[in-house]
Amino acid sequence: MTWTAPSVVRTQRLSDLGTVTERRMLEGWLRRHRETLLAKCAGLTPAQLARTTVEPSDLSLLGLVRHMAEVERWWFRRSFAGEDVGDVFTGPSDGDEGLAGVDAAEAERDFALFRAETAACDAAAAGHDLDETFVSRGGVPLSLRWVYMLMIQEYARHNGHADFLRERTDGATGD
């Protein structure tokens, strides 16, 4: 039996985020965006996930999953938490940040790495105050709050890309 991207059970309802604490809201929106990206991939085969469908772009759904794992690692674990961990797929120094080098044969592994990375990023941020800061590579002080906001906008932008990629793959639209 051929592996397909698993269906996503939504754990975060947006209606539950209207009056919660700032921390809960940021974590909830990030969780919702992570789930949205995976939902855009649900039911697709590795070949479909790796397919580029919006020419001339070489974006693929699998590339976006890989990219987001890489970006999460960079900001939450390497930058904020100061963990000495390498790249998940490729790093910021190559400019691709996981988008290139997509291999349909590695789709199941790549999805598992994404899930493991997001869990590790949640653990890296757990117990830290949103006002806690670190200094970026560019020498700019940034807060954990800033990292959450950055990740939410990064997912929002790429989930828009995922909408087009999914529609061009099999016609599916919607959340």
Offer a concise description of the structure.
By secondary structure, the protein is mainly alpha-helical. It has one domain (45-170): Four Helix Bundle (Hemerythrin (Met), subunit A) (Up-down Bundle), CATH 1.20.120.
Describe what this molecule looks like in 3D:
With 175 residues, this protein is mainly α. The chain contains 5 helices and 2 strands; from the N terminus they run ααααββα. The protein has a two-stranded antiparallel ribbon with strand order 1-2. α1 packs parallel to α5 and α3 runs parallel beside α4.
Layout: helices, strands, pairs:
Blueprint: H1 22-41, H2 46-50, H3 61-80, H4 107-125, E1 133-135, E2 141-143, H5 144-170
Antiparallel strand pairs: 1-2
**What is the terminal-to-terminal distance?**
27 Å
Q: Tell me the overall shape.
A: globular
Which CATH architecture is right?
Answer: Up-down Bundle
Query: Helicity level, as a percent range?
Result: 40-55%
Q: What are the segments in which pLDDT stays under 50 over at least 5 consecutive residues?
A: none
Mean pLDDT: 93
Question: What Rg do the Cα atoms give?
Answer: 16 Å
Number of helical elements: 5
Tally the structural domains.
Answer: 1
Main sheet attributes: strand count, strand direction, barrel closure:
2 strands, antiparallel
- For the record, what CATH class applies? Mainly Alpha
Which sequence of SSEs, written as H and E, runs from N to C?
HHHHEEH
By DSSP, the count of extended strands is 2
The secondary-structure class comes to: mainly alpha
CATH topology: Four Helix Bundle (Hemerythrin (Met), subunit A)
Strand content: under 5%
Order of strands across the widest beta sheet? 1-2
